[in-house]
Inverse folding.
């Protein structure tokens, strides 16, 4: 997490949720962490984020299949995307497209594959679209049931804006 010696950062980070509430959430989740939005004009939400290490195409395919995440091949130029923007390929595995918005364990989430990781974001499903609440924590825990065999691949913290207690 960013600098806890900076009072402005601390005030910003803990504005929507107290430290005690975030500690309670963190202890209830094994892989997901609360991550504060960048803020400013970025228009990004607070999220619950899980990052899992992926070190090969075979590992990516195995993980996405186990989680029920569709992994689609990039269509050839002019095929399958006329009238729409071309799907975003996964940089590290360019024959596949980024999963994007999907359902995992019946939960709406966003999945992105980076150079060495697969990230699953849960956010704003219930009452306030840019904030995380207890409903989102419960949704993350549903996903974590599927993640149990892959818990050793969890990257903790997933980024430097995440609360780890």
């Amino acid at each position: 997490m960013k600098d806890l010696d900076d009072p402005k950062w601390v005030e910003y980070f803990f504005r929507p949720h107290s430290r005690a509430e975030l500690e309670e959430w963190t202890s209830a989740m094994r892989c997901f962490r609360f991550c504060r939005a960048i803020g400013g004009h970025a228009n990004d939400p607070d999220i619950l984020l899980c990052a899992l290490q992926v070190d090969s195409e075979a590992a990516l395919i195995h993980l996405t299949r186990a989680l029920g995440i569709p992994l689609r091949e990039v269509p050839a130029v002019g095929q399958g995307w006329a009238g729409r923007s071309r799907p975003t390929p996964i940089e590290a595995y360019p024959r596949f497209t980024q999963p994007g918005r999907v359902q995992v364990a019946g939960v709406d989430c966003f999945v992105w594959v980076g150079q060495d990781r697969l990230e699953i974001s849960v956010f704003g499903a219930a009452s306030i679209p840019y904030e995380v609440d207890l409903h989102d924590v419960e949704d993350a825990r549903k996903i974590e049931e599927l993640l149990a065999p892959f818990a050793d691949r969890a990257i903790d913290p997933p980024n430097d804006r995440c609360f780890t207690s």
Remarks:
- The chain has four helices and five strands.
